[in-house]
Structures are given as C-alpha cells and as structure tokens.
Amino acid sequence: MSFSDSSQKLTIAMPKGRIFEEAVHFLQQAGLQVTAELQDSRKLVIPVENARLEFILAKPTDVPTYVEYGVADVGVVGKDVLLEEERDVYELLDLQIGYCRMMVAGMPDWKPTDAPRVATKYPKIASRYFREQGQQVEVIKLNGSVELAPMIGLADRIVDIVSTGRTLKENGLVELEHICEITTRLIANRASYRMKSEAVDDIASKFLEVIPKRS
Ligand SMILES: Nc1ncnc2c1ncn2[C@@H]1O[C@H](COP(=O)(O)OP(=O)(O)OP(=O)(O)O)[C@@H](O)[C@H]1O
Ligand SMILES: O=P(O)(O)OC[C@H]1O[C@H](OP(=O)(O)OP(=O)(O)O)[C@H](O)[C@@H]1O
To answer: Are residues 164 and 189 in the same domain?
Structure first.
C-alpha cells in the first residue's frame, strides 16, 4: 500500500536551520509531497493534504524530544544531537546527508596541563570521550562561538563540529583528535514504530531508495 493510501497519519519532526534545506531536498527525492508552506512560511505545523502526513518544524536539538514523547512519530536529526540528548528513540536510517565530524581542537602549540578545560556545546559527548581516553578534564558548556574559548583563555581545547574547517582556520585553531563522523538520521518513536508500522516502514523504504543514489 502506498504512503498516501495508508490510514495511519504520520507526524514528521523536521530540524529548522542548517540541515533543513538538504533534508527537504531528500524528502522530495523520496517522493514525499513537500509544499511551498514547508519551505517558505513561518508556520510550525504543516499538514500535507491528502497524504495523511504532517510536518512539525523544530529546533534541531528538540527533534528527539518530540519523537521520544510521541508528538512526532518520526524525525530527521543529526547524529551529534542523538549522542548528546540520549533520548529513548529508535534510530532507523543514516540518510547520508549533513556530513560533518566531531573533533577536539585547540591552538597549534597546545600542550597538556594539570587542570585541562574543554569548552563545548556538547558536554555529554565531550565528557564521554575524555572518560574513554582516561583523561580527567573540566567540561565547560557554551552555547555557540565555541572557538573563542581557547583564543581568550577560557579553555585549552574545544569539542565541536567541523565541516569545511573554515571556522577553525580563521581563528588560528587546529584539529587535534577525531571523535566521530556525523550525519543526519531518521529516528522513530518506539510506540509509533509498532502501532504505525505500515506508515513508518513506508517512509523508511522510500528514504532507503534515495540513499544509494547519493553515495
Ligand atoms: N558545519 C556544521 N556546523 C554545525 N552543524 C552542522 C554542520 N554541518 C552539518 N551540521 C548539522 O546541522 C545541525 C545543526 O544545525 P543548526 O546549526 O541549524 O542548529 P543549532 O546548533 O541548534 O543552531 P543554533 O544553536 O545556532 O540555533 C547539527 O545537528 C549537525 O548535525
Ligand atoms: O568547519 P566549518 O564549516 O567552519 O563549520 C563549523 C562551525 O559551524 C558550527 O557553528 P555554527 O555556525 O552552527 O555556529 P555556532 O558558533 O553558533 O555554533 C560549528 O559549531 C563550528 O563553529
């Protein structure tokens, strides 16, 4: 049965911001009906007529929260957010978009100190990484412009996303250690995965068809 024929309405949480356009392009390639409203309006809830489908537009870090609580059945979100938020959701697919990497970075002349401090938007990822490395560090949570921290002496290193490397370079920082690769994922609410299996499977298989074409 096709998605539009299904009697099960599916709510999809989409991340506003940086990965939004690439994610919308992905949905279009998967054959989902993407209306102009999704791309051009300030509306945050966007029903798709005749498709038993509804989009909600959320801040990227909140996407797993909406999905865990079941107000969205599925969501599109970066692996960085999943690792940091640790929400109880199923991770169904790696969409192979939104490529970037989680790195430790610092000044080129960085040397270990007795009281190392690491600044980051990702305190859980950073704490886990340094614990696994057997290193004791103080993690300082920032909400953005993390590259400032080593430049002005708040911390000696940062944990952050690197994509082109331009932000590090223009601020005189270098990549020190690679933590993991990051891509965008399709996630599902655990109950929706069982109760709306037909609709969730349908969207996942449509997405799956797009992935090999991109890699
Ligand atoms: N160069 C990059 N920098 C940051 N995020 C990137 C980059 N490339 C891909 N991404 C993905 O985009 C998502 C972040 O999007 P965005 O920056 O819009 O959200 P945000 O961090 O919540 O934004 P803000 O806090 O500035 O409102 C990340 O979860 C990550 O998976
Ligand atoms: O390697 P690049 O291509 O330069 O991208 C990496 C930068 O992009 C992100 O910041 P963002 O633009 O989301 O701003 P922020 O400082 O508010 O986190 C990330 O935190 C880096 O600062």
So the answer is: no
Domain that holds residue 75: 3-98+183-214
Q: Whose CA is nearest to atom 14 of ligand 1?
A: 18
Mean pLDDT score, 72-97: 98
Is residue 43 helix, strand or coil?
Answer: coil
82 Cβ below 6 A of ligand 1? no
Query: Do residues 144 and 174 share a domain?
Result: yes
Q: What was the pLDDT predicted at 215? A: 55
Render pLDDT for 106-136 as a digit per residue (tens, 0 to 9): 999 999 899 899 999 999 999 999 999 999 9
Residues 187 and 94 in one domain: yes
On whether both 89 and 191 belong to a single domain, the answer is: yes
| Ligand minimally distant from the alpha carbon of residue 144 | 2
CA distance 5 to 18: 32
In the reported structure, the alpha carbon of residue 57 is separated from the centroid of ligand 1 by a whole-number distance in angstroms of 15
Residues 126 and 148 in one domain: yes
ipTM (interface predicted TM): 0.95
User: For residue 18, which phi and psi values (nearest 5 degrees)?
Assistant: -55, -40
| CB of 78 closer than 6 angstroms to any ligand 1 atom | yes
Specify whether 86 is located in the same domain as 189. yes
Residues 84 and 166 in one domain: no
Structure tokens at 95: 């969409």
Q: Is the CB of 160 under 6 A from ligand 2?
A: yes
First-to-last CA distance in the chain?
28
140 beta partners: 119
Nearest CA to ligand 1 atom 9: 98
Is the shortest distance between the CB of 18 and ligand 1 below 6 Å? yes
Quick one: which atom of ligand 1 is closest to the CA of 78?
31
